[in-house]
Design brief:
Layout: E1 2-6, H1 10-22, E2 26-30, H2 33-42, E3 47-51, H3 59-68, E4 75-79, H4 84-92, E5 97-100, H5 105-117, E6 127-130, E7 133-136, E8 141-143, E9 148-150, H6 153-164, E10 170-171, H7 172-180, H8 190-204, E11 209-214, E12 218-223
Parallel strand pairs: 1-2, 1-3, 3-4, 4-5
Antiparallel strand pairs: 6-7, 7-8, 8-9, 10-12, 11-12
Helix pairs in contact: 2-3, 6-7, 6-8
Length: 225
């Protein structure tokens, strides 16, 4: 199960992440509002732990924006602002639960377990259409001009981000972080292997779309001319 923690206190973030990892969770970390928003919208998480007082974008504004963009992931807001007015504001902004600092790690873990036990919300849109492609990143399949093929989760993650950028170049680091997470120990060179796999999938469904290598930068999806 994959979690994202958005917290500018790096010591607290590190200690909390350590405990969560001991419980079997996979945890990514972001340290300001800009970075947090990027990973909230681009990553695939089961739960987000969100600090309220963040640099660049505060937690309330960040969560409001993410919910308006369609984020359905459960959010546990963490903050030192614990009076009733602040708790109500946090919940009204889209948080699913609210825990004040300093917190006992046992309570945090209990709340994480409770939120991740809830039935997953079904998104209204699990499909992306782009030119002659249909990507279903929930059912993990790709359709083109001739037939359909199945995808791995990593292939779907990478192709999802390329399609969303509509022909724009996506950096290697963005693609890698989106598919594998921020702090993974996997070698970044594995991205090239998965791009090779996706190119074969595009050929298999007779798509006119091709993944172009932008040397020294990353990749983009464009129509073959």
């Amino acid at each position: 199960m994959r979690l994202l923690m958005v917290e500018d206190d790096k010591d607290l973030c590190s200690a909390t992440k350590l405990q969560l990892c001991k419980e079997g969770y996979e945890v990514d970390a972001a340290y300001d509002g800009d970075e947090g928003l990027y990973y909230m919208l681009e990553g695939s998480y089961d739960l987000i732990l969100l600090d309220r007082l963040l640099p660049k974008i505060d937690g309330i504004s960040l969560l409001n924006h993410a919910r308006k963009k369609g984020l359905l992931t459960p959010v546990l807001m963490l903050t030192a602002l614990g009076d009733i007015g602040n708790r109500v504001e946090g919940l009204d902004s889209g948080a699913d639960d609210y825990l004040t600092k300093p917190f006992d790690m046992r309570e945090l873990l209990a709340r994480v377990r409770a939120l991740t036990r809830r039935p997953a919300q079904i998104t209204k849109r699990s499909e992306l259409r782009y030119c002659d492609l249909l990507l279903d990143f929930s059912a993990l399949y790709l359709e083109g001009n001739k037939g359909r093929c199945t995808l791995s989760k990593k292939e779907a993650d990478i192709l999802n981000l390329l399609i969303k950028n509509e022909g724009g170049t996506v950096s290697r680091s963005q693609l890698f972080s989106h598919a594998w997470g921020i702090d993974t120990e996997v070698e970044e060179s594995i991205l090239d292997t998965y791009v090779h796999f996706i190119r074969r999938r595009l050929d298999a469904v007779s798509s006119t779309m091709r993944i172009r290598t932008v040397r020294g930068v990353g990749y983009r999806l464009e129509e073959e001319t």
